[in-house]
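Continuing the series of single-chain predictions for the mutant panel. This is the parent chain; the variants come on the following pages.
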Amino acid sequence: MTEINLTAKLFLLLGGINALLAVIMGAFGAHALKVRLDEALLKVYQTGSEYHFYHALGLVLLGVLAINIPINIWLKISGWSMLVGIILFSGSLYLLSIFNLRWLGMVTPAGGLLFIIAWISLIIAVLKQ
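Parent structure:
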């Protein structure tokens, strides 16, 4: 068996770590926050948790792709955009809902834009092969 390349290993690790964090954050929201947050803020929190998990799986997908296709800049852009998108989008929604920091709502769209860039970059990476 051959060693996997550094890019593949990095995205697989980041994906696994983020999937773990998404499960933890989801469980925290479902159990600890359900009785503390109103319905609207709980929905905001759940949206952050859902998108966190989707994009954690996206990072895993990128890691698997990086094993099977030659690495290119678009694949790397996709992975880093997903990671920063998780931090900005899901992170802002977690903090907004837990601490009722409404101003963080201005950060969330930047994370969403990075998610869009990540998926477009993935499409380009595949088309370049």
